[in-house]
User: What shape does this take?
Amino acid sequence: MNDPLTLRDRRRAETTAEIAAAALDLAVERGWDQVTVDDVAARAGISRRTFFNYFSTKDEALFHDAMAWRPGALEAFTASSAPLLDALEELFATQAAQDTPDRDRALRVMRLVDGSPELLPGLLARIAASEQALAAAVSARGDVDEFTARTVAAVAGALARVSGTNWIDGRQPDPLSSTRAAWAALRTLTTTDRRTL
Assistant: This one.
């Protein structure tokens, strides 16, 4: 017998994805400033009230999976006894491996943000929230002080964005390969003679 909770969670994930897809499709068709919550709800086949059961704003619907940590990911990272860099790489690799690659959607969102400057603050806020959560997890491990934890989170976040761009641009076959390549590049700094930097 299927677990009702699992089925409910699956249906919620499906509806979330449908709403996000509707928001992106409408934004590409009309321009983001010409899209309303009612438009998104109608395209997704749900009521306005149902929309707000999933998202607070249309911007949130558009960016619903941007920079979101998978359930339990940060907790596993914090509990890991591996060296900090190793644990960080595995955290991001696990995130990448769990993602369902959708290069077309990522490209469309990037182009939309490029053409709609009003979307940038929302995206930057999501990036900042993600990095703050990571900094708290790094600090909780006890490896480094709070300032270093924030610095490490910012560097790791930048690395994630570089690896994402490399995959979107087609220089890597999938998010996991791109993540591994980016971390390999970072690690060269720890083995390179400082006189050459």
Notes: The mean pLDDT is 88. The radius of gyration is 19 Å. The chain has ten helices and no strands. Residues 113 and 119 are 6 Å apart (CA to CA).
